[in-house]
UniProtKB/TrEMBL annotation:
It holds the Pfam family G6PD_N. This is Glucose-6-phosphate 1-dehydrogenase. Keywords: Carbohydrate metabolism, Glucose metabolism, NADP, Oxidoreductase. It comes from Meridianimarinicoccus marinus. Pathway: Carbohydrate degradation; pentose phosphate pathway; D-ribulose 5-phosphate from D-glucose 6-phosphate (oxidative stage): step 1/3. The gene is zwf.
Length: 484
């Protein structure tokens, strides 16, 4: 099956921070793939903006190199790359100054979708928003895209929301959480809400518990100074894991429309119980063979910032009362894997006897690697000699069943940028959602920051600290193995 490419309206997209890491690694390669697939209109304009002094030829060279490094360009003829580069313009602009804005305005066209991607530090969001409005570059139809981190606590998130709201309506603001752009995450909604099979079982009566895991094998690398001010709770849990939890736990929205979906996600966040310290574990990776430890990777040798978090979360509503959600995320773990596991309850009575081999059903939703969903069912082992049961997967690896190559599935950024052009906010976070998520995570972070306790150490290549295993073992459950 070949995925359909639905063309979008013509657009001008300005990328602030166009020479930065995110633009070169994700945004421009994503746009290139949309261009190569035929989705980008012939007259679409991509306008890079940054303080660097360079002309458009030099900028196109920067982008060419980025594509060679980060996009799959080998399979594309040279004229496709050239064709893409012709869409690019560049303007030297300082977000905090007055130069460059009129040149930028002169490149923008009337009558096409106009979007501004803020791929710069959040401290510049307010400056850019203000200048876009006061210098006449944005109107009430323009869209702005803002990157994470959206604040570092409730107070700063509120301040950011307020500064954007001074110049833009909520319907114009696209807060990116790229996890929501992943194919499997959207498939989670399709599986839940387009099939009658699961929804009747999707509650505390039938689901024993849920596990959400986002594990990385890399350490903080060159991002040590940034990461050390953030930590796993701010960098991953408050946004990405929280969004995944919301999609699993939310009530069916009345329509697959932005505010209907986001209203339901917000209700989940507001129903989260405060997490007591006994239900949270934080860890920090230790040095290993040929590998530096966290404390060597960051500037502060006494840092108590966590590179790992595991927690048990309870949702206080009718649907989920009594079904815990276990979440964990960390760096330098055994395998790079992101998955959600829905563990159903055992059958109330096993007619085949206790030793027959029957196991509880389990659905796992893999975001990476190898995006797909599998459902473990119990069937009879073939052959004579009584009823022996065996646990088998119903495997829905997308690349296999849909006949698409993994590299041809649009990556989260390309999908989300096209959603901005289409004006579809469903997969973007609303301001009140972000604030509610901070209101829930702030007390957890404050407890850590007001203490001086070191996070629990763990070995590189392990599944995290021992205390994270105990967190779930004490409930008579086990984490799913971290499979690559
Ligand atoms: P980066 O590599 O440091 O790039 C920053 C960009 O902003 C550069 O193009 C820089 O170019 C430009 N810039 C800096 N100050 C400016 C100013 N006063 N006016 C205009 N342009 C200015 O940062 P990044 O990693 O790309 O991250 C960008 C944003 O995305 C940040 O909010 C980050 O948190 C977020 N983010 C990044 C990633 C990632 O993987 N990199 C992932 C998720 C979110 P000049 O120096 O030439 O001005």
């Amino acid at each position: 099956m070949v995925s359909r490419t639905i063309p979008v309206d013509s657009f001008d997209l300005v990328i602030f921070g166009a020479t930065g890491d995110l633009a070169r690694r994700k945004i421009l390669p994503g746009l290139f793939r949309r261009f190569a697939s035929g989705q980008m209109p012939e007259d679409a304009k991509l306008i890079g903006a940054a303080r660097s002094e360079m002309d458009v030829t030099a900028y196109r060279q920067v982008v060419r190199e980025a594509l060679l490094e980060f996009a799959d360009v080998e399979s594309k003829p040279d004229d496709v790359i050239e064709g893409f580069l012709r869409h690019l313009e560049f303007v030297t602009v300082d977000a905090t100054g007055d130069d460059g804005w009129s040149e930028l305005r002169s490149l923008l066209r009337a009558g096409v979708v106009r979007a501004f991607y803020f791929s710069v530090a959040p401290s510049l969001f307010g400056d850019i928003a203000e200048r876009l409005k006061t210098k006449g570059l944005a109107d009430e139809d323009s869209r702005i895209v803002v990157e994470k981190p959206f604040g570092r606590d409730l107070k700063s998130a509120k301040a950011l929301n307020a500064s954007l709201a001074t110049y833009f309506d909520e319907s114009q603001i696209y807060r990116i959480d790229h996890y929501l752009g992943k194919e499997t995450v959207q498939n989670l909604m399709a599986v839940r809400f387009a099939n009658i099979l699961f929804e009747p079982l999707w509650n505390a009566q039938f689901i024993d518990h849920v596990q959400i895991t986002v594990a990385e094998t890399v350490g903080v690398g060159g991002r040590g100074s940034y990461y050390d001010k953030s930590g796993a709770m701010r960098d991953m849990v408050q946004n990405h894991l929280m969004q995944l939890l919301c999609l699993i736990a939310m009530e069916p929205p009345s329509r697959f429309e932005p505010d209907a979906v986001r209203d339901e996600k917000l209700k989940v966040i507001r129903a989260l119980d405060p997490v007591p310290p006994s239900d949270v574990v934080r860890g920090q990776y230790r040095a290993g063979k040929d590998l530096t430890g966290y404390l060597e990777d960051v500037e502060d040798p006494d840092s108590i910032t966590e590179s790992f978090v595991a927690m048990k979360v309870q949702i206080s509503n009718w649907r989920w009362q009594g079904t815990p959600f276990y979440m964990r995320t960390g760096k330098r773990l055994r395998n790079r894997t992101s998955e959600i596991v829905i563990r159903f309850k055992e059958t109330p009575h096993s007619i085949f006897g206790p030793n027959s081999g029957s196991a509880a059903n389990e659905m796992s939703i893999r975001l990476q690697p190898n995006e797909g969903i599998d459902l473990r069912l119990t069937i009879k082992e073939p052959g004579p000699g009584g009823m022996r049961l065996v646990d088998v997967p119903l495997d829905m690896t997308f690349s296999e069943i849909l006949g698409v190559k993994l590299k041809d599935i649009p990556d989260a950024y390309e999908r989300l940028i096209m959603d901005v052009i289409r004006g579809n906010q469903t997969l973007f976070m609303r301001g009140d959602e972000v604030e509610a998520a901070w209101a829930w995570s702030d007390p957890i972070i404050e407890t850590w920051e007001n203490g001086d306790q070191q996070p629990d150490g763990y070995d590189s290549g392990s599944a995290g600290p021992e205390s994270a295993l105990e967190l779930i073992h004490r409930d008579g459950r086990r984490w799913r193995e971290l499979r690559g």
